Amino acid sequence: MMVPSLKLPDLIQEIRGAKTQAQEREVIQKECAYIRASFRDGDPLQRHRQLAKLLYVHMLGYPAHFGQMECLKLIASPRFTDKRVGYLGAMLLLDERHDAHLLITNSIKNDLSQGSQPVRGLALCTLSTMGSAEMCRNLATEVERLLLQESSSYVLKKAILTAVHMIRKDPELASIFLPPCSKLLHECHHGKAPHSLLQVWLWTDIVKNKPGAPAHRTRVVPQLVQILRTLVTTGCSTEHSISGVSDPFLQVKILHLLRILGRNHEESSETMNDLLAQVATNTDTSRNAGNAVLFETVLTIMDIHSAAGLRVLAVNILGRFLLNNDKNIRYVALTSLLRLVQSDHSAVQRHRPTVVECLQDTDASLSRRALELSLTLVNSSNVRTMTQELQTFLETCPIDLRADCASGILLAAERFAPTKRWHIDTILHVLTTAGAHVQDDAVANLTQLIGGAQELHAYSVRRLYTALAKDISQQPFVQVAAWCIGEYGDLLLEGSCEETEPPQVEEEEVLALLEKVLQSHMSLPATRGYAITALMKLSTRFQDNNRIRQVVSIYGSCVDVELQQRAVEYSTLFRKYDHMRAAILEKMPLVERGGPQVDEEAKESKEVPQLLEATVPDTAEPQATKLLDLLDLLDGMSRDSQHPVSLDSTPGNALVHPLDLPCATPPPASIPNLKVFEREGVQLNLSFTRPPGAPALLLVTVTTTNSSGGDVTHFICQAAVPKSFQLQLQAPSGDTVPAQGDLPITQIFRILNPNKAPLRLKLRLTYNHFGQEVQEIFEVNNLPVETWQ
Fold it and tell me: Could you list the residue ranges forming a coiled coil in this record (predicted)?
């Protein structure tokens, strides 16, 4: 005999009493079998009871899809007990992914038009929960009718929520609900329309999803202003009052809607200006509800066309928020001030001391927001004090904030530095405090800054040497110090500095310090490269060359390939090219930070006559040594053939080599341009010119453009020529070609062809494009005849 099916309370009790998951599954499988059998028998009196048990099983995570059709049958039933369970089942078991949900459209329509108040509420709840866009379009007129004619507050609230759901599903339905929304807004005051919050919510969704809808804007804004003014001045019933604030939820919703309506609309903004000032001054700030209303008021003032005095009032409110003990309120204030600082910078500046105090907050999110705001408040008038505060914070800030703080200080110093000396001191302080957290370009920026400040060379090298003697752990700082000592080490020995009594430094101390950097386990390979190059530079500034040669030779067998290569090259320079070492290792030329390339070209163009008339042999040597690094890509050609013809250092042969002529922009020539490469939008064009007075020298300008939709990164162009030619590759203008034909990359090849032989090039291109690495090697044999004749 079959055991009868369990009732819902008994089923719940038995499932909860299962000691293992296997027992629970056994109970549920057995009961699901009874439920299926009952559905097949078609007993209408038991259907809603069986479906209720199935819904509980569904809530536990077990499959219950076989009850979907039973939901439709129960919804179509005239009995309220069946409809109640049927609509609940539809909300749980049906959604837009199942076509079965469309089958209840007619049942919902009938219930909305003819059903009782509870039945209409069930239909509206179901429609607002799982109604698809198609269902919403079919039933929108029924919901509109309820909004216009329904007198029951219970049903009207549900109808408003359903209308919100419909507009979100299909924004085109917003125009249907405009007439009922206008009618409901007239009743939007307590006592006559307790659903006023939902009405404002509905209006907000209409305006958001249909921006052109406020043709009613001129009527809506004054009504909303009047409702909010009533709430602020006369208050409301204690039922809707929270901590003495009249219905803060409704106030926040109205302010949010006013912000949307007043955005980019000056007339509406003027209508609400007085009200916003009244709300901002009369709202109690001792309770969190009042703070919520005030914050929404500030957001509204920020977004609309508000008066200048009103915006200052909003900033002052946020300033008071910064003094609040609640961390959430302080965080909100910092975030809002960060948005306001661009448009109302002077008003936000008044609260700078409070913002700086927030840097020391123990809450990580607060200190991060305070740091971002503090960096935006830095300007030319307060850069010294703000930088000092930020440097103090940098010394004690959490590790995860040091990178942002260091980068912010460096950027502020770059933009607002009052003097070069102050700029250098600021960067040095950052490097010594948080050198491991600065960006990669900090080293290059500081070296360029020091190199361009000739009057501060002695001061900088002494500061760097003194700090390096104390600490060699901050690698970017050590790199800058090594570079500066290598360039201006002779100034250390002279003692020429602005200090009254500069400490005396001996050659041995400087060399020992650089050796310490080379031998330290904390030194990165790049840092060791800076140190060994500094030692090499000092070989032309100090007397003790033997010690330097010994140190350099030791690293000729270093496991680090880069360092080994440098050591071998430097040793070769000592051994074979000692007569050229002084010229090669001379001090770097001064480079202006504004435009190094332009200034260098202008300087070189002025030096052309002097170079052509030079009679001193040393002037040619630094340029000639650039020919020692030639790349031979042509198969079968010996590397030795690429070396340049050595230049005699006697006065009789001291004329400048044609390859050493400066690369100032030559006048236009008649040699036609040539396109040699094109792939996926990346194009390579060659243009040719000959400098005046050097018929054997050809300047080839390689221009790389990118018309595709993705940037080309890590672009490298290498070239080789036959052994009868001499080739020199100059540094390209960059290694990234922006997308959509933006700034191209240019590079100059200087080719010497003394024998007037036919010219051919072999090019190798490597770059990354659309996330893939590309390498192309090809030969250019169709060069114009004018390039070699």
Answer: none
Q: Which of 674, 682, 764, 756 is nearest to 718 (CA)?
A: 764
Rounded Cα distance, 295 and 280, in Å:
9
pLDDT class for 384, splitting at 50, 70, 90? very high
Mean pLDDT of 415-434: 90
The DSSP secondary structure of 188-245, one letter per residue, reads -STTT-TTHHHHHHHHHHHHHH-TT-TTSHHHHHHHHHHHHHHHHHT---GGGEETTE
Q: Tell me the percentage of the chain whose pLDDT exceeds 70.
A: 85
Residue 22 has pLDDT above 90, yes or no: yes
Residue 625: its pLDDT value, please?
35
Q: What integer is the mean pLDDT of 485-511?
A: 75
What number is the average pLDDT over the span 58-80?
90
Are 757 and 722 spatial neighbours (Cβ–Cβ below 8 Å)? yes
Own/partner contacts of 107-116, CB < 8 Å, gap of 24 or more, are 107/72, 107/75, 107/76, 108/75, 108/135, 108/139, 109/138, 109/139, 109/142, 111/75, 111/83, 112/139, 112/142, 112/143, 112/146, 113/142, 113/145, 116/80
Look up residue 438 and give its two tokens.
């600065």
Interhelix angle for 8-16 vs 44-59, to 10°? 30
Tell me which residue of 746, 745, 779 sits closest to 764, measured CA to CA. 779
Angle of helix 248-262 versus helix 266-282 axis, rounded to 10:
150
Question: What would the two tokens of residue 223 be?
Answer: 């009504």
Instruction: Identify the pLDDT of residue 142.
Output: 92
Question: Within 13 Å of residue 46, how many CA atoms lie on the same side as its CB?
Answer: 15
CB atoms within 10 A of CB 269: 24
- CB-CB contact of 540 with 548 (8 Å): no
- The candidate with the shortest Cα–Cα distance to 111, out of 137, 148, 86, is 86
Res 185: pLDDT: 76
- Contact status, residue 301 vs residue 276, Cβ threshold 8 Å: yes
Q: Which residues, 6 or more positions from 594, have their beta carbon under 8 angstroms from its beta carbon?
A: none
The encoded tokens of residue 139 equal: 């039933």
Paired tokens of 547: 């010690």
Q: Is 363:327 a contact under the CB 8 Å cutoff?
A: yes
Top mean-pLDDT range of 132-136, 242-246, 598-602: 132-136
Is residue 421 packed enough to be buried (19+ CB in 10 Å), middle (13-18) or exposed (0-12)? middle
- Tokens in use for 786? 């004018």
User: What is the distance in angstroms between the CA of the first residue and the CA of the last residue of the chain?
Assistant: 111
In which region does residue 740 sit, left (phi positive, over 0), alpha (psi from -120 to 50) or beta (all else)? Answer: left
Question: Cα–Cα distance between 395 and 402 in angstroms, integer?
Answer: 9
The three-state secondary structure class of 170 is coil
